């Protein structure tokens, strides 16, 4: 189940999954939900999944519990299994592992002792492959209950439940990794597009401004005021710095994706994959670029070959007419604009400090 899940129930119509009992206008909203989920941008609702798992485990445990005579109500279990199978095979139902897991738990109450011994070996193999904590203890309990059917059934039921829980968490982790990767890719694409669009727009504005001033000089029409340095309004460089910081933060997130998902736990991915956390990282990168801009503005670092002069940030007419970078109205970024974009881009990489910031904040709260 996802955070952004479409209305239920759903029914098959004309070869497609469509929501039943919905107005025609609501189908557009439902389709947007589906596309959002198809792009892997939605996150699974872990709390709902774990709640259903716990509730299912308690319900099945009650059904497979022997009565006062030590017998299991096989008829009740078989009716429940038949009901679940009919529900799973219904064309109006989407396949869910939840039903399969519940049936797997129910059949534990139907097995005889030899069958449970065989199944216990298989479940122990899965538990060891999944590095399930307590797998050795389960092996000891199963060996001790080798000839006790009730004890074997109780132990096997708990083992199956724990193995299912492990598989479910691993599946949830894969979904979170997919959503995190898709969201970071989307943010990187939008940030890159925004940064490029801003630079191109400013270049065209500068080219139009320089052209109008040249026309005024040639015709004598218009104000004689000289253009700003570089043919660009000086404070526009502030927006360039913010956009470059945004681009740098998005690039850093993209470059760190593989490292962050390789050894992540489910809890870590639940936090890192949320848009709020991703925007927080972007905000840190933008903030660092903003501070760096004002550092350059105050000339705190002095004037040198590696620091930009903000009053000179802009575009220049290139003398190399065959150069590729002259394709934007015949202009190219001057040295100061290039340095500002470079340093702001590097400042965006400060988003990697977010984990240490959160850890420091958490420790402060714990001390308080």
Your description of this structure?
This protein is mostly helical and 368 residues long. It has three domains: 1-33, no CATH class; 42-170, no CATH class; 174-367, no CATH class. The protein has 13 helices and four strands. Strands 1-2 form a two-stranded antiparallel ribbon. Strands 3-4 form a two-stranded antiparallel ribbon. Strand 1 (10-13) and strand 2 form a beta hairpin. Helix 7 (149-219) packs antiparallel against helix 8 and helix 7 (149-219) runs parallel beside helix 10. The protein is elongated. The chain crosses the membrane at residues 176-205, 234-254, 275-296, 340-358. Keywords: Membrane, Transmembrane, Transmembrane helix.
Brief synopsis:
This protein has 368 residues and is mostly helical.
Instruction: Classify the beta-strand content into a percent band.
Output: under 5%
Helix content: 55-70%
Biggest sheet features: 2 strands, antiparallel
Order of helices and strands: EEHHHHHHHHHHHEEHH
Apparent shape: elongated
Query: Structural class given helices, strands, pairing?
Result: mainly alpha
Question: Please, how many helices?
Answer: 13
Please report the distance between the alpha carbons of the first and last residues: 37 Å
What Rg do the Cα atoms give?
31 Å
Poorly predicted segments: 1-19
How many domains comprise the coordinates?
Answer: 3
Transmembrane segments: 176-205, 234-254, 275-296, 340-358
Keywords: Membrane, Transmembrane, Transmembrane helix
């Amino acid at each position: 189940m996802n955070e952004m899940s479409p209305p239920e129930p759903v029914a098959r119509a004309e070869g497609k999954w469509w929501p039943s009992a919905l107005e025609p206008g609501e189908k557009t909203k439902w389709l947007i939900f589906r596309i959002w989920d198809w792009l892997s941008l939605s996150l699974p609702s872990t709390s709902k999944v774990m709640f259903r798992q716990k509730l299912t485990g308690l319900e099945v445990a009650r059904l497979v519990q022997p009565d006062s005579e030590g017998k299991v109500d096989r008829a009740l279990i078989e009716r429940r299994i038949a009901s679940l199978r009919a529900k799973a095979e219904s064309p109006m139902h989407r396949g869910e592992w939840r039903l399969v897991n519940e049936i797997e738990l129910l059949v534990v109450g139907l097995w005889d002792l030899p069958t449970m011994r065989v199944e216990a070996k298989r479940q122990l193999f899965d538990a060891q492959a999944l590095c399930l904590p307590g797998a050795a203890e389960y092996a000891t309990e199963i060996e001790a209950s080798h000839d006790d059917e009730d004890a074997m059934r109780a132990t096997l039921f708990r083992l199956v439940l724990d193995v299912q829980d492990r598989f479910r968490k691993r599946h949830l982790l894969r979904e979170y990794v997919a959503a995190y990767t898709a969201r970071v890719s989307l943010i990187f694409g939008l940030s890159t597009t925004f940064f490029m669009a801003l630079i191109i727009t400013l270049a065209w504005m500068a080219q139009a401004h320089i052209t109008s001033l040249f026309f005024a000089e040639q015709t004598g029409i218009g104000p004689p005021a000289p253009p700003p340095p570089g043919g660009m309004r000086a404070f526009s460089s502030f927006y360039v710095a913010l956009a470059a910081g945004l681009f740098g933060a998005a690039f850093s997130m993209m470059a760190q994706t593989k490292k962050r998902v390789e050894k992540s736990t489910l809890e870590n991915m639940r936090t890192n994959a949320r848009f709020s956390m991703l925007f927080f990282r972007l905000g840190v990168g933008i903030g660092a670029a903003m501070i760096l801009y004002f550092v350059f503005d105050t000339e705190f670092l002095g004037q040198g070959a590696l620091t930009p002069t903000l009053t000179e940030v802009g575009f220049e007419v290139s003398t190399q007419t065959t150069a590729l970078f002259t394709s934007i109205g015949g202009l190219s970024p001057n040295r100061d604009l290039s340095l500002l974009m470079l340093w702001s881009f590097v400042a965006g990489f400060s988003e990697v400090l977010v984990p240490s910031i959160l850890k420091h904040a958490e420790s402060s709260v714990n001390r308080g």
